Amino acid sequence: MELYDAIHRRRDVRAQFTGEPVPADTLHRILDAAHAAPSVGYSQPWDFVLVRDAAVRRRFHRHVQAERATFAATLDDAAAERFARIKIDGVLESTLSVVVTYDPERGGPAVLGRHAIADAGLYSVCLAIQNLWLAATAEGLGVGWVSFYRESFLAELLGVPAGVRPVAWLCVGPVTHLEAVPDLERHGWRRRRPLAEAVHHDRWPQRVTDRPNS
């Protein structure tokens, strides 16, 4: 698959997982792609926890549903109605989850390039996640990033050491298809901004404000 095809075909998958396993050689390739990501100071601050245990996934899923209810309670009636139609995870439908973590001590005590931007290591982990996602798309797999969880809960669930942050729970697996239109757009939650609105030249555009008549 061409790189640009993978970028534009990539979707945040929830409902399309078939439940089939990920072949071992395919899994190795997508993890190798993730591990090849650039990182600040060549610190490579990520780790990948492969979660297949059904009991662990069920416990995490219960937590996700509780957090869904917490979020739903903050919405007005119209938004709550839209949200009720949106599936937020494929934790039980996919047979594999990959939890990606961030270790800020990796490469320390002096991480080259991080002295002025403390979050540069976290950005590096996000680059590894994007590499994994695009590689999985090129392999014909789906990936869904689950964000309805508390970091402290997930750290306890997986025995993540103190100081290491769980950044992403990714559901990974074969899918029936990838939707042509992202779920949140299909369900009327948000629409994609035109590229022209996001591109600025030389400096941030100044907002024109109305002046009172003098």
Number of folding domains? Answer: 1
- What does the main sheet amount to? 4 strands, antiparallel
| Shape field | globular
The CATH class is identified as: Alpha Beta
Q: What share of the residues lie within helices? A: 25-40%
Number of strands: 4
Give the amount of beta strand, in percent: 5-15%
The H-and-E topology, N to C, reads as HHEHHEHEHEHH
Compute the average pLDDT. 94
**CATH topology annotation:** NADH Oxidase
State the separation between the terminal residues, measured CA to CA. 62 Å
Short recap of the structure:
It comes from Micromonospora haikouensis. The protein has helices spanning 3-9, 24-35, 54-72, 77-84, 120-138, 151-158, 183-186, 195-198, and strands at residues 46-51, 96-102, 141-146, 165-174.
Description:
It comes from Micromonospora haikouensis. By secondary structure, this protein is an alpha+beta fold. The chain has eight helices and four strands. It has helices at 3-9, 24-35, 54-72, 77-84, 120-138, 151-158, 183-186, 195-198; strands spanning 46-51, 96-102, 141-146, 165-174. The longest helix has 19 residues, at 54-72. 27% of the residues are buried. The mean pLDDT is 94.
Characteristics:
alpha+beta, NADH Oxidase, FMN, 14% strand, globular, 38% helix, 8 helices, single chain
What order do the helices and strands come in, and which of them pair?
Elements: H1 3-9, H2 24-35, E1 46-51, H3 54-72, H4 77-84, E2 96-102, H5 120-138, E3 141-146, H6 151-158, E4 165-174, H7 183-186, H8 195-198
Antiparallel strand pairs: 1-2, 2-4, 3-4
